[in-house]
Protein 1
Amino acid sequence: GESVGLHLPTLSVQEGDNSIINCAYSNSASDYFIWYKQESGKGPQFIIDIRSNMDKRQGQRVTVLLNKTVKHLSLQIAATQPGDSAVYFCAENYGGATNKLIFGTGTLLAVQP
Amino acid sequence: NAGVTQTPKFQVLKTGQSMTLQCAQDMNHNSMYWYRQDPGMGLRLIYYSASEGTTDKGEVPNGYNVSRLNKREFSLRLESAAPSQTSVYFCASSKARQASSYEQYFGPGTRLTVT
């Protein structure tokens, strides 16, 4: 079946460094991708999204890169802060008109002071 | 705006008991979703409602039923709870796919334990 997976289950970085979280997807027909942040005990929070007609999109301190050739998605966080510590999920939209999402298993980002 | 709200926050059930999880959104979104999240895993779609009056199954619908009561509210019912349904349940909502942006917004979750 279709799936979205992450290469690294845990990522530990030093405060101030840049973080890169990777994600592989398998459905070449997916046309919309989202990154979510989930803090302990809370619901997922939208970070940034990208459509398949784009290669890169930037937000505040975050950048998402999409490589459709190898079906790879990454989230870059600049100047990582302790408040960035959380689980990060990528998700792909496979549902066409119905906006259904498949989520990856998540990467835990641990920021060391 | 409260966004997406869910009740209750916590619930403990015995095997065979029934309950309904409530979800409401105040963003005038057309689409609503129910997910479950098990430890160390991503979210899996149980049911969704693309618009008021319609519901469809997701990846893991067995043991659940849903009701889209109106545009704001989408409830999830467990008719006969089983230990395998111990999980954290999240409700989400979004604009329709035709909108310029249609990311899903999530509620705080309901932590359900079935003994």
Protein 2
Amino acid sequence: GAGVSQTPSNKVTEKGKYVELRCDPISGHTALYWYRQSLGQGPEFLIYFQGTGAADDSGLPNDRFFAVRPEGSVSTLKIQRTERGDSAVYLCASSTTEATGELFFGEGSRLTVL
Amino acid sequence: AQSVTQPDIHITVSEGASLELRCNYSYGATPYLFWYVQSPGQGLQLLLKYFSGDTLVQGIKGFEAEFKRSQSSFNLRKPSVHWSDAAEYFCAVGATLTGGGNKLTFGTGTQLKVEL
């Protein structure tokens, strides 16, 4: 597709379960970002990939959160032992590597932890 | 560390009226500044950005923003609001990442309601 695609659009899980969220960036974009948006807040940076490697993971809240991008395209955000506080919309964005490059965002995956 | 403040959580304007959304930032160097709009069921869309040069930048949908270094502000304006402008607006400051790309820090957003 032409834009950033995220699946699932909605995910409801129980506390303690494992969750995977997928992001398919715009073709040719080498930079990929994950953000988290809690209710009433702006998006918060989680992790940034340049190609296959995580160049900056300073926003991951703890070691229950992990993300991969094995082939430099699709990325998966993985959350272990989910907690109610993980409930949020997880946004993915991609861009070129230009310093002035625009970030293109997907519609997000809404995660609800019961 | 960089930060962004959007002091207005909600703003209501009448269709056809002018609009100004406030944004103040904190950043140690010359900032990269952005305004994004988020409509229900849609992803964040870039309205405009400032990197350098002319401090008045034009964006899509008739929006403009002015960078004022002395006030650490980057307010968004539109002369005449349309009902379709109702959405949430986010100001962001960017920091260049190693290897390229931008790490954006967002404000908490301003929800715009347009009265017909």
Protein 3
Amino acid sequence: GAGVSQTPSNKVTEKGKYVELRCDPISGHTALYWYRQSLGQGPEFLIYFQGTGAADDSGLPNDRFFAVRPEGSVSTLKIQRTERGDSAVYLCASSLIGADEQFFGPGTRLTVL
Amino acid sequence: DQQVKQNSPSLSVQEGRISILNCDYTNSMFDYFLWYKKYPAEGPTFLISISSIKDKNEDGRFTVFLNKSAKHLSLHIVPSQPGDSAVYFCAASATAGGTSYGKLTFGQGTILTVHP
């Protein structure tokens, strides 16, 4: 079956603009995660959804970042008033509830000029 | 505060020899550990995991060792193959009642290069 997909694969925007990053999890996976990976670092946790609700959003860096998963499947990560420091690869992962293996998408590379 | 650390940014190994990648953690609440492999322009791919009730888990050429008292784990790849060349991340999670909490904390990664 299809893996986790993320769109767009690359996004270039200007400082101060609004961006949306989309994640399509593996069908049937009720848990969905967003991570951010900066150059030379490992993925850093942002937010975790169980179904439609955010079970843990402790990794969101500030209130410019927001994520939704209205129907318990596709998720959108929204970043307002982007800053150059937001430039990174944003990774999405999904898993079955209670399973420890998370399946990652290829990521969206966000560049803020 | 880096709770999971991979102190070797890179490792170079000859084909056929053993690769040993190391990882240290500081949070004693972590009780489940995973290794992921990442190729350029792809997302991390799960490789192998170990629960804190074990000290070793083996899957083919890959073995993970866990030393809880030292808060240290290692991944052994033997024999190493050129296709193993990638970035390897260790990750840790804290489970609750045996169910994964979900949030993974990753190390910085180690670039493994296996020379033919």
Protein 4
Amino acid sequence: GAGVSQSPSNKVTEKGKDVELRCDPISGHTALYWYRQSLGQGLEFLIYFQGNSAPDKSGLPSDRFSAERTGGSVSTLTIQRTQQEDSAVYLCASSSSGGYNSPLHFGNGTRLTVT
Amino acid sequence: AQSVSQHNHHVILSEAASLELGCNYSYGGTVNLFWYVQYPGQHLQLLLKYFSGDPLVKGIKGFEAEFIKSKFSFNLRKPSVQWSDTAEYFCAVIRNSGNTPLVFGKGTRLSVIA
């Protein structure tokens, strides 16, 4: 069946530009996560959506980062005024619960390069 | 917030060697524990998980992990590694209460050489 889909797969942008990254979770999955993966830093938690609850934004590194999830399905991660340190692979994952007692299903990620 | 420590950044083993990757977490309450694996060019996938019961859990491809509550540890083991086990391994922890996120360690890269 269809897995978690992320677009674009690669994004190169100039420093100072805004970018939007998209995630289509598995249908019916109520939980959606964004993580950032960079060399030596592993998987850094960014934001977590669970059903209709307020999102857990505790992992967002600065106010340049924001995310929304429309209709409990598709999510968009927005990075404003990108900086070179934002370069990383941005991973989206979904789960039928919160990953608490069911595994996360990951997308292939968006590789963001800020020049 | 809970945190996860993986002490080995990069492990290099010969085929048939035994593997143990360390994982420690900081939260004192009840947790669910996971190991995820990312093979080269592939997305992350679940290797094994612990929720409750027998602290020795078995996963896919001959991997196992042991939960030692007193040590806040969940080390991953495999008696005899294969070249195809070359991958990055991530330990993850989630609190067993409340609506809190799944937190990952920084990962351990395993290279298996022939």
